[in-house]
């Protein structure tokens, strides 16, 4: 007991550990006592927590991650990007033969797997023309391999057969199983096993054949003893035979291989660079290689640079041309219009909230229903209604013309521009301003105004110096709600915004659903989120988030 | 009717909110300068409405309200220069104590140095000088009410209205503040209209008390007169503890009358608002004026009573009796060494001086 009192009394010597009656530290005892309660509370919120985590936090995190993710280039073109790393774009020279070799291998495999077009669209965001370059290259790539294939074929027809290849490359044990396998048995196909020492003897061939084997078995579900290999494998074999000595090889098909080895010296050959040039002239374009090199790393700031109207260049990030800058303008416009909407909501909502808080119950209820009415109507209907109201042949223009205020020839343009968006969104977001304002105003007793008046203040002074400062938390809460909602609003600006009244969110939606540039959409979304958080932080610093009351 | 010297005067004032019922019915009241007048009554009796009409927050439906001889019916509240203290203090929460007090001076366009001097004086007056920089929410209820009082006084109004200012405080604090408010009012010579439903507060603080019921002033009198000489049975019942016995007037002889109770017993009383024999009446006797086994004159009437309950309350004993067929007759006796202590079931004779028993209207 003395311990406890000494600990509690302020200004005395530093309190030691306060002990509970059983001698344990009091804190520990308290924690033990509270643990059960905490567990129970946790259990109660667990379903919601899980739901939010799985359906909200995780997708958002994944989406945000996409804004820097760029693995597609190095995954699709692993050899190319690796060899390209040493290339210095600034010299103005094209990459050397090894890079072209890597590109041929990568592109061939990618084309077989139909992955090259995806990479093409990805790189097309950075440089137009990439998409068609990759698509056409995928089709024309066989021309290079056919040079060698035809010569092997001429040498020995077996080079165009599946089984001899399988015998040459495969492990004998695997081959036996493979030959015994029948699709009708319903058993799993035995997985390809490379013959011992083959990766030493014929490294490129082994690598490409393994890739072929995996693709054929896994993706196509076909037997390796029936499918003749890609022409890529023949190209690889030619290269291997030119470099390696196979005289010591005694395995299956040794004779065929040795015969080929003897013949390859006399084969007609082309460089990969020439080959790729024949496939498409653009492969000799310096810019193409620059782009590929710039987007080789697994993570990129390219999307973000893009989102702020910049681009990557070998000399570092640079702003785009004036006429290509669009996102800065859109962000500024979104900010400006959200502020306008918030401002109009305050101006229109404040008197309504005041009435709501001060009218007798019955009238206040009726008014409340009117305020809530928009919530019960479809958003689309409301927005479309504004279209009917505001268009040039619409209700308001008709009335103005009828009254003679506006000439029939120059009817006002009030829709498909910023004005239309601001009007429609103010209407839609007004309840979000009125409700927090109302709930704050409800807590301000009317006696404050009476007190102010009894102290000699006029109605205006009483309102401005006594009532208004107390309603500021409501304005703050409403403004934050309306501003954050409007900054990310999509449907209304899409319908009534035309070209000048659209928001950044419309651009994000475009990139998500039309251009399929999810990385850029994610970068734009991340910036939007950061702006909102920044504003929230600024608001907290200036006004204090404690001052925000929703009720 | 109107007193020309009156500082505050209500003349034939009526008030209705809905156009169907009158909340205040024909109110006439005049107050001299410097008076402390309390409006006392149950809730819904119209006392707060009267205060609000005086402050200007409600308009009189009919009649005239005058301040210092001038009709203020059409003057807006902020021009009346009346200080007001509210039940829930109504201190502006977004301003400090000093800013709260500064507010009425600022709207009167007073210079900074003058303001500061006045604020300091007002805060010292309520012994809150050290709290100028605090926010109202950092103060206790009693402290807040002191500040509210200082704010109502800082611009030196001649009339201050108080609407149940101590209603939200605990008993002890209430008593301290009652004393302080009365002292301040008398020191400053201000006129105070004080609204309360607490009769003790009304009796201890006021120069005069106006008892409100049903939109009318039932009695306007100094506290002692109100307690000892209630003009009607509502006042008798509302102020202090009271024993009421119903009966009919049997005989009136000047300032004495005899009343035959419903049980057949006959007692003496002072006729107050009864005029003729045979009229129904309710007699009122204060519990502390009743004596056990009285030694009164030979022709004095006494009643038989049976003790139902004996409560020891420290300074007094409270004995509940069955008298003339009623079970709620209470007698209070001082705790003296020689005082008899009765136990339930005992029979006893009770009596009182005829002047302590008032024959009032039958409700």
TrEMBL record, chain A:
Q: Which InterPro entries match?
A: MetI-like, MetI-like_sf
Membrane topology label: Multi-pass membrane protein
Report the PROSITE patterns cross-referenced here: ABC_TM1
Q: Tell me the keywords, alphabetical order.
A: Cell membrane, Membrane, Transmembrane, Transmembrane helix, Transport
Transmembrane residues, as ranges? Answer: 41-61, 335-357, 364-381, 419-440, 472-491, 518-539
List cellular component terms (GO): plasma membrane
An example GO biological process term is:
transmembrane transport
User: Domain of life of the organism in this record?
Assistant: Bacteria
Recorded hits in Pfam families, A to Z, give: BPD_transp_1
Provide the ABC transmembrane type-1 domain boundaries. Answer: 331-539
Q: Where in the cell is it found?
A: Cell membrane
Which coarse location class applies to the principal site listed for this UniProt protein? membrane
Keyword Coiled coil appears in the UniProt entry: no
| PANTHER family noted in UniProt | ABC TRANSPORTER PERMEASE PROTEIN, INNER MEMBRANE ABC TRANSPORTER PERMEASE PROTEIN YDCU-RELATED-RELATED
Can you tell me which family this protein belongs to? Belongs to the binding-protein-dependent transport system permease family. CysTW subfamily.
Name assigned to this protein: Putative spermidine/putrescine transport system permease protein
The organism of origin for this protein: Puniceibacterium sediminis
From TrEMBL, chain B:
Catalyses: ATP + H2O + polyamine-[polyamine-binding protein]Side 1 = ADP + phosphate + polyamineSide 2 + [polyamine-binding protein]Side 1
Show the GO MF annotations: ABC-type polyamine transporter activity; ATP binding; ATP hydrolysis activity
Q: Which UniProt keywords apply?
A: ATP-binding, Cell membrane, Membrane, Nucleotide-binding, Translocase, Transport
Q: Which residues form the ABC transporter domain?
A: 8-239
EC? 7.6.2.11
- Do you know which Pfam families this protein is assigned to? ABC_tran, TOBE_2
Return the SUPFAM superfamilies for the record.
Answer: MOP-like, P-loop containing nucleoside triphosphate hydrolases
InterPro entries per the UniProt record, alphabetical: AAA+_ATPase (IPR003593), ABC_SmlMolc_Importer (IPR050093), ABC_transporter-like_ATP-bd (IPR003439), ABC_transporter-like_CS (IPR017871), Mo/tungstate-bd_C_term_dom (IPR008995), P-loop_NTPase (IPR027417), PotA-like (IPR005893), Transp-assoc_OB_typ2 (IPR013611)
PROSITE patterns cross-referenced by the UniProt entry: ABC_TRANSPORTER_1, ABC_TRANSPORTER_2
Q: Which GO terms describe its cellular component?
A: ATP-binding cassette (ABC) transporter complex
What functional role does this protein have?
Answer: Part of the ABC transporter complex PotABCD involved in spermidine/putrescine import. Responsible for energy coupling to the transport system.
Q: Which NCBIfam families match?
A: potA
What is annotated about its quaternary structure and interactions? The complex is composed of two ATP-binding proteins (PotA), two transmembrane proteins (PotB and PotC) and a solute-binding protein (PotD).
Q: Which family does it belong to?
A: Belongs to the ABC transporter superfamily. Spermidine/putrescine importer (TC 3.A.1.11.1) family.
Query: What is the protein's given name?
Result: Spermidine/putrescine import ATP-binding protein PotA
- Give the originating organism: Puniceibacterium sediminis
- The encoding gene is potA
């Amino acid at each position: 007991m003395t311990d406890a009192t000494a600990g509690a009394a302020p200004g005395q010597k530093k309190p030691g550990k306060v002990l509970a009656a059983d001698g344990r530290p009091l804190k520990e005892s308290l924690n033990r006592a509270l643990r059960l309660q905490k567990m129970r509370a946790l259990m109660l919120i667990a379903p919601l927590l899980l739901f939010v985590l799985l359906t909200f936090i995780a997708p958002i995190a994944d989406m945000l991650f996409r804004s820097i993710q760029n693995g597609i280039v190095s995954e699709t073109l692993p050899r190319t990007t690796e060899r390209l790393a040493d290339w210095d774009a600034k010299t103005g020279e094209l990459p050397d033969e090894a890079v072209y070799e890597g590109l041929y291998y990568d592109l061939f495999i990618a084309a077989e797997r139909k992955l090259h077009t995806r990479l093409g669209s990805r790189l097309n965001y950075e440089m137009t023309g990439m998409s068609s370059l990759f698509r056409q290259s995928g089709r024309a790539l066989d021309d290079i391999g056919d040079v060698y294939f035809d010569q092997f074929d001429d040498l020995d027809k077996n080079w165009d057969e599946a089984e001899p290849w399988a015998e040459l490359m495969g492990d004998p044990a695997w081959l036996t199983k493979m030959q015994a396998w029948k699709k009708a048995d319903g058993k799993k196909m035995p997985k390809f096993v490379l013959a011992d020492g083959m990766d030493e003897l014929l490294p490129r061939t082994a690598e490409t054949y393994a890739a072929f084997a995996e693709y054929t078995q896994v993706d196509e579900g076909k037997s390796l003893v029936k499918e003749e290999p890609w022409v890529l494998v023949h190209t690889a074999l030619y290269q291997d035979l030119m470099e390696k000595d196979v005289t010591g090889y005694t395995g299956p098909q040794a004779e065929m291989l040795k015969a080929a080895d003897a013949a390859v010296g006399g084969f007609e050959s082309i460089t990969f660079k020439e080959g790729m040039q024949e496939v498409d002239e653009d492969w000799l374009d310096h810019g193409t290689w620059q782009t590929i090199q710039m987007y080789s790393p697994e993570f990129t700031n390219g999307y973000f640079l893009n989102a702020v109207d910049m681009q990557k260049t070998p000399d570092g990030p640079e702003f785009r041309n004036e006429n290509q800058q669009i996102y800065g303008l859109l962000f500024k416009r979104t900010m400006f219009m959200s502020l306008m909407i918030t401002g109009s909501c305050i101006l229109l909502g404040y008197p309504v909230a005041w009435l709501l808080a001060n009218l007798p119950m019955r009238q206040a209820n009726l008014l409340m229903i009117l305020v809530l009415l928009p919530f019960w109507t479809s958003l689309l209907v409301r927005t479309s209604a504004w279209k009917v109201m505001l268009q040039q042949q619409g209700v308001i223009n008709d009335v103005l013309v009828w009254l003679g205020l506006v000439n029939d020839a120059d009817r006002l343009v009030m829709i498909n521009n910023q004005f239309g968006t601001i009007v429609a969104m103010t209407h839609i977001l007004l309840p979000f301003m009125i409700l927090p304002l109302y709930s704050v105003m409800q807590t301000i007793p009317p006696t404050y105004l009476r007190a102010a008046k009894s102290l000699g203040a006029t109605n205006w002074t009483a309102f401005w110096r006594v009532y208004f400062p107390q309603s500021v938390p409501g304005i703050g809460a409403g403004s934050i709600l309306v501003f954050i909602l409007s900054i990310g609003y999509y449907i209304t600006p899409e319908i009534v915004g035309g070209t000048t009244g659209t928001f950044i969110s419309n651009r994000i939606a475009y990139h998500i659903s039309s251009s399929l540039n999810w990385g850029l959409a994610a970068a734009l979304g991340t910036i939007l989120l950061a702006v909102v958080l920044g504003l929230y932080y600024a608001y907290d610093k200036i006004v204090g988030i404690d001052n925000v009351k929703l009720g | 009717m109107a007193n020309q010297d009156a500082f505050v005067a209500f003349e034939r004032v009526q008030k209705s909110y809905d156009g169907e019922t009158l909340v205040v019915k024909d109110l006439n009241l005049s107050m001299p300068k410097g008076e402390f007048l309390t409006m006392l009554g149950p809730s819904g009796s119209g006392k707060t409405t009267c205060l609000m009409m005086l402050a200007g927050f409600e308009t009189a439906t009919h009649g005239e309200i005058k301040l210092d001889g001038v009709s203020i019916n059409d003057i807006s509240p902020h021009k009346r220069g009346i200080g007001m203290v509210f039940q829930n203090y109504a201190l502006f929460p977004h301003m400090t104590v000093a800013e709260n007090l500064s507010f009425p001076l600022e709207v009167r366009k007073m210079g900074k140095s003058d303001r500061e001097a006045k604020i300091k004086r007002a805060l010292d007056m309520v012994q809150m000088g050290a709290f100028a920089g605090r926010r109202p929410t950092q103060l206790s209820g009693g402290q807040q009410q002191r500040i509210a009082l200082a704010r109502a006084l800082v611009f030196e109004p001649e009339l201050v209205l108080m609407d149940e200012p101590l209603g939200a405080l605990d008993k002890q604090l209430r008593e301290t503040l009652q004393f302080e408010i009365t002292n301040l009012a008398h020191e400053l010579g201000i006129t105070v209209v004080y609204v309360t439903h607490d009769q003790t507060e009304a009796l201890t603080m006021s120069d005069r008390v106006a008892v409100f019921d049903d939109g009318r002033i039932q009695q306007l009198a100094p506290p002692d007169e109100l307690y000892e000489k209630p003009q009607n049975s509502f006042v008798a019942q509302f102020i202090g503890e009271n024993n009421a016995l119903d009966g009919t007037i049997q005989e009136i002889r000047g300032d004495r009358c005899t009343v035959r109770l419903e049980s057949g017993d006959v007692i003496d009383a002072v006729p107050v608002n009864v005029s003729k024999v045979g009229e129904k009446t309710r007699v009122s006797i204060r519990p502390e004026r009743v004596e056990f086994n009285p030694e009164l004159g030979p022709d004095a009437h006494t009643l038989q009573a049976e003790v139902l309950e004996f409560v020891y309350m420290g300074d007094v004993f409270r004995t509940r009796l069955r008298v003339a067929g009623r079970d709620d007759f209470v007698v209070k006796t001082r705790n003296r060494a020689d005082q008899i202590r009765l136990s339930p079931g005992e029979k006893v004779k009770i009596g009182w001086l005829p002047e302590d028993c008032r024959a009032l209207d039958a409700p």
